[in-house]
């Protein structure tokens, strides 16, 4: 199955947890923990996508700044050059972008606005569901379940056999 970003957004919805550029790192970490997410887009004061903050970025900042991390904001640790996606982009393309950029999250943009966020977990979930569905369809095909069988010409059904013998 050839899937697109909009398939993921249709399942998970388009609600995106975001943080602001001036949000303190401790608040950002609290937001990620409360929502059980690994990253969030960072929005500038005018609502534009400025970057992405992730658990990885917080750990990196902690290793560099130690206890002084509490003085940092989202814009101090966010990744600025992040790949983005459009709703019509293929899941395969997004997975390649994630792998190449080593980002686990890709903001979805449409007409310059943030409309969703795709994570590597979303892609894995969709791929697993597609594989499960395909396996079930192949099994149904092989076993004849849920598929119309066409009887070869001249083949006699059991009912017809009973009638001929009587």
Automatic annotation (TrEMBL):
Q: Please tell me whether the keyword RNA-binding is annotated for this protein.
A: no
Region: Disordered; residue ranges are 143-166
Give the matching Pfam families: CBS (PF00571)
Keyword presence, Transport? no
Keyword terms, alphabetized: CBS domain
Where is the secretion signal located?
Answer: none
- Domain of life according to the entry: Bacteria
Read off the Gene3D superfamilies from this record: CBS-domain
Q: Which residues form the CBS domain?
A: 10-69, 78-134
Q: Which PANTHER family match?
A: CBS DOMAIN-CONTAINING PROTEIN (PTHR43080:SF2), CBS DOMAIN-CONTAINING PROTEIN CBSX3, MITOCHONDRIAL (PTHR43080)
- Identification of the protein by name: CBS domain-containing protein
From what organism does this protein derive?
Gluconacetobacter entanii
């Amino acid at each position: 199955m050839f899937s697109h970003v909009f398939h993921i957004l249709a399942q998970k919805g388009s609600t995106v947890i975001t943080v602001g550029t001036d949000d303190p790192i401790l608040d950002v970490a609290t937001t990620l923990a409360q929502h059980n997410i690994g990253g969030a887009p960072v929005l500038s004061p005018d609502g534009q996508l400025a970057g992405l903050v992730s658990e990885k970025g917080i750990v990196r900042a902690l290793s560099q700044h130690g206890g002084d991390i509490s003085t940092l904001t989202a814009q101090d640790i966010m990744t600025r050059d992040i790949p983005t996606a459009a709703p019509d982009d293929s899941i395969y393309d997004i997975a390649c972008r994630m792998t190449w950029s080593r980002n686990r999250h890709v903001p979805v943009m449409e007409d310059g606005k943030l409309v969703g966020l795709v994570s590597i977990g979303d892609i894995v979930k969709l791929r697993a569901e597609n594989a499960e569905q395909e396996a079930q369809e192949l099994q149904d095909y092989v076993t004849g379940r849920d598929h119309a069988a066409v009887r070869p010409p001249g083949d006699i059904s059991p009912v017809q056999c009973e009638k001929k013998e009587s």
